[in-house]
Design a protein that fits this description.
Length: 393
């Protein structure tokens, strides 16, 4: 599907070089580096024969255009996928990927730490369409294997979960799921394909909220699903049948953002580690939930499968929820907001047990989640320092 762009992405280049060169076709665009932002529903044909047989690359706006193809090519290249499909949001990408591979009567196994709207989609929509979701502890591969004792159509993972940051054993779970005939889906928004490539670890479909790090500037919503063979063919068919399309302006903004993904991720990770280490040494912090820290219980698994960490992590304090709320309210540089992955630092105090059912988070250990942005980490630490002080004032 993306072969037209392969001249700019020769095999053997390293990932950062491929990120810079995939999806541009200046020879077709009068020399301009970037693809045009193609607005269009109608595509014209030279004659009825071509219109009927589909003997030209583009036929209908909803089926694709050069702008959207360029972004699909970049994401496919980074994930090592045959093809990518674009969706209007990350939530829509998660929902449609599941809808594409699950039908009435099927069982679906989801890790208990998946993104809350993915959980809600499984519980409300898949159930309404006659499928049965089952949630399992992402840290208990035996429980996952036991759940696979009965036939399941799909297994859905997130690595790590974006509230509590447990890292599942992806290769082990994927192998068990494949052996049981299930399609394996993984929401890779946290790591980006620069740091983790699920298809290399046995997954069939990899999903991104491109809203987050791909866009990187808190100014768009977009989702992607990538894979090869039958799995991505099913997603492509479903996207067409449900009539889903993404307008080219948000695709253009995502393309602009993704070109700097490598440099941004390096800075997010460096800042996050400085802040995480500072928090870990703070007497008021119970636990830092960042798999890149050697003290994290999943650090060995993380080191085995990931090339690095991103800038989203959590920490917990002891006591009641109100303590975490007061801490977040006292922050001045960190803003309160959910949609992470942008250049500005954010904080929230999620109520973890509201969005899990197979596992339980200790009540007296409320979590604060931080999106570490591109500010100077000394300023972020100063802000956290005064807020931890103010928490008990
Ligand atoms: C934000 C997010 C999504 C949803 O993305 P939207 O574009 O906001 O719909 C899906 N999965 C994860 C892990 C996310 O953090």
């Amino acid at each position: 599907m993306n072969d037209d762009n392969s001249d700019r992405a020769p095999h053997g280049l390293r990932r950062a070089s491929r990120l810079a060169h995939t999806g541009t076709t200046p020879n077709e665009m009068h020399g301009f580096v970037n693809p045009p932002v193609v607005h269009g529903s109608t595509v014209l044909f030279p004659d009825m024969e071509t219109a009927r047989t589909g003997g030209q690359r583009y036929r209908y706006g909803r089926r694709g255009n050069p702008t959207n193809d360029a972004l699909e090519a970049v994401v496919s290249e980074l994930e090592g996928a045959e093809a990518t499909q674009l969706f209007p949001s990350g939530a829509s990408a998660c929902a449609m990927a599941l809808a594409a591979v699950v039908k009435a009567g099927d069982r679906v196994i989801l890790m208990d730490n998946v993104y809350a709207p993915t959980r809600a989609f499984a519980r409300e929509v898949l159930t309404a369409f006659g499928a049965t979701p089952q949630f399992v502890d992402p840290k208990d591969p035996d429980a996952v294997e036991a759940a696979l004792g009965e036939p399941a159509a799909a297994v859905f993972l997130e690595a790590p979960g974006s509230l509590t940051f447990e890292v599942p054993d992806v290769p082990r779970i994927a192998a068990a799921a494949k052996a049981a005939g299930a399609t394996v889906l993984l929401d890779n928004t946290w790591a980006t394909p620069l740091l983790f490539r699920p298809l290399e670890h046995g997954c069939d479909l990899v999903i991104h909220a491109a809203t987050k790090y791909f866009g990187g500037h808190s100014d768009l919503l977009l989702g992607t699903v990538s894979g090869s063979g039958e799995a991505i063919a099913a997603v492509k068919a479903a996207r067409g049948l449900w009539g889903i399309h993404v307008g080219p302006d948000d695709v253009f903004a995502t393309l602009r953002g993704i070109r700097t993904l490598d440099v941004r991720m390096e800075r997010h990770a460096r800042n996050a580690m400085i802040v995480a280490e500072w928090l870990e040494a703070h007497p008021k912090v119970a636990r830092v939930l960042y798999p890149a820290l050697p003290s994290h219980p999943d650090h060995a698994l993380f080191k085995r499968d990931f090339d690095g960490a991103s800038g989203l992590f959590g920490f917990s304090v002891r006591g009641e929820q109100a303590r975490a709320d007061r801490l977040v309210d006292a922050l001045r540089l960190f803003a309160i907001g959910y949609s992470w992955g942008g250049f500005e630092s954010l904080a929230t105090a999620p109520i973890v047990n509201k969005v899990r059912s197979a596992t339980r988070w200790p009540d007296e250990e409320p979590v604060v989640r931080l999106n570490i942005g591109l500010e100077d980490p000394a300023d972020l630490i100063a802000d956290l320092d005064q807020a931890l002080e103010a928490m008990d004032a």
